[in-house]
């Protein structure tokens, strides 16, 4: 299973990861750097 980082309102994932933990850490870092909420969701 893969996990993607999304910004609500924009189509498609910005990046995909094999691990939910990696995706969460990347989303957290991106949100801190940009002050924009990044969401992690399962992708096929």
Structural summary, described in words:
By secondary structure, this protein is of the alpha+beta class. The chain has one helix and three strands. It has a three-stranded antiparallel β-sheet. It is flat, with a radius of gyration of 9 Å. The model has no long low-confidence stretch (mean pLDDT 96).
Give the helix/strand layout.
Elements: E1 2-6, E2 15-17, H1 20-34, E3 39-43
Antiparallel strand pairs: 1-2, 1-3
Measured as a percent range, the helix fraction is 25-40%
> Distance N terminus to C terminus?
7 Å
Proportion of residues in extended strands: 25-35%
Say how many strands there are.
3
The dominant shape is flat
Estimated radius of gyration: 9 Å
The DSSP helix count reads 1
Task: Give a quick precis of the structure.
The protein contains one helix and three strands. By secondary structure, it is α+β, with helices and mostly antiparallel strands. It is flat.
Features:
44 residues, alpha+beta, single chain, flat, 30% strand
């Amino acid at each position: 299973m893969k996990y993607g980082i999304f910004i609500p309102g924009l189509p498609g994932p910005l990046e995909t990861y094999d691990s939910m933990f990696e995706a969460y850490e990347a989303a957290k870092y991106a949100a801190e750097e940009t002050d924009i909420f990044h969401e992690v969701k399962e992708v096929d």
